[in-house]
Amino acid sequence: MMDWTDRHCRQFHRHITKHTWLYTEMVTTGALLHGDVARHLDFDGIEHPIALQLGGSEPADLAKSAKLGAQWGYDEINLNCGCPSERVQRGAFGACLMAEPTLVADCVKAMRDAVDVDVTVKHRIGINDVDSYEFMRDFVGEIAAAGCSTFIVHARNAILKGLSPKENREIPPLKYDYAYRLKREFPDLEIIINGGIKTSAEIDLHLQHVDGVMLGREAYHNPYVMAEFDARYYGDNAPIKSRRDVLAVMIPYVQTQLDLYAERGLKLNSITRHMLGLMTGLAGARSFRQMLSDSKQLASGRPELLLEAAERVREG
């Protein structure tokens, strides 16, 4: 979710669902150890529960980065072993780490020794032409022995050469049965499934076999799908905010951010771009997106543009 689940996106999503876990973009250890820590780790308390997703392959660096995440108040530290991009591969982390389970186990142990919060691993079912269930099972088994008890399984292979990250999310076939079997063989582990899941009905089906479900692209492109999650999965029957209610509560946040970070060049579209899918499926959704993508409209810097765009939509 690099360039997607930044703090503006997470703030927006939290006004749709209070209890669903949110994950940061993948933050590299180098960015934390040699860059602007506050810029990468600062978040609003409303975002809890929130996990920091790390990218790296050096146990000592990951331990230091995990400690920083815990100090900043994150509820979980997640190690990414699933991203297939060439940029990530050049840093020797992401999905290519599936070929080095012993190294990943060392990384997990170092991180667990450094923090008290949960350390979790997100991974694919295989890499390149290696896609046997046994390969994934052995990877998970070795890392579980190092103390990791939660695995997020993106149920596709990662093709490290020849496919773009977008193609890696679409072309390799989904093999949900791998995650189901993993849960059967490791009943004490928490197994969370990811990949191509779009509806609550699909989530319900997966929850018959595994412990949790992660949504990526669907949560971003159709965020209001999460509006029923609090009641459906967390037992919270508080009234569901309408789409317009969500936009209304975002307006003061947007204004505050624009005031605080104008010197950094923050513009209205840096925040509104995350909201373009809010009206998906409704009459007028296209007009809503167009208005929030119009450079002349956005140049005004007026947060009220959100509700003005919503007037073009017939809701309910």
From TrEMBL:
Major enzyme class: oxidoreductase
Key words of the record: Flavoprotein, FMN, NADP, Nucleotide-binding, Oxidoreductase, RNA-binding, tRNA processing, tRNA-binding
Database matches in Pfam families: Dus
Residues given in the record as FMN binding sites: 53, 122, 154, 194-196, 216-217
Feature type site, description Interacts with tRNA: 80, 166, 169, 286, 289
EC number: 1.3.1.91
Alphabetical list of PROSITE patterns matching this protein: UPF0034
Domain DUS-like FMN-binding: 1-306
Reactions catalysed: 5,6-dihydrouridine(20) in tRNA + NAD(+) = uridine(20) in tRNA + NADH + H(+); 5,6-dihydrouridine(20) in tRNA + NADP(+) = uridine(20) in tRNA + NADPH + H(+); 5,6-dihydrouridine(20a) in tRNA + NAD(+) = uridine(20a) in tRNA + NADH + H(+); 5,6-dihydrouridine(20a) in tRNA + NADP(+) = uridine(20a) in tRNA + NADPH + H(+)
Gene Ontology molecular functions: flavin adenine dinucleotide binding; FMN binding; tRNA binding; tRNA-dihydrouridine20 synthase activity; tRNA-dihydrouridine20a synthase activity
Gene3D superfamilies in the record: 1.20.120.1460, Aldolase class I
Active site: 83 (proton donor)
Cofactor: FMN
UniProt similarity note: Belongs to the dus family.
Function: Catalyzes the synthesis of 5,6-dihydrouridine (D), a modified base found in the D-loop of most tRNAs, via the reduction of the C5-C6 double bond in target uridines. Specifically modifies U20 and U20a in tRNAs.
Matching NCBIfam families: PRK11815.1 (NF008774), yjbN (TIGR00742)
Name of this chain's protein: tRNA-dihydrouridine(20/20a) synthase
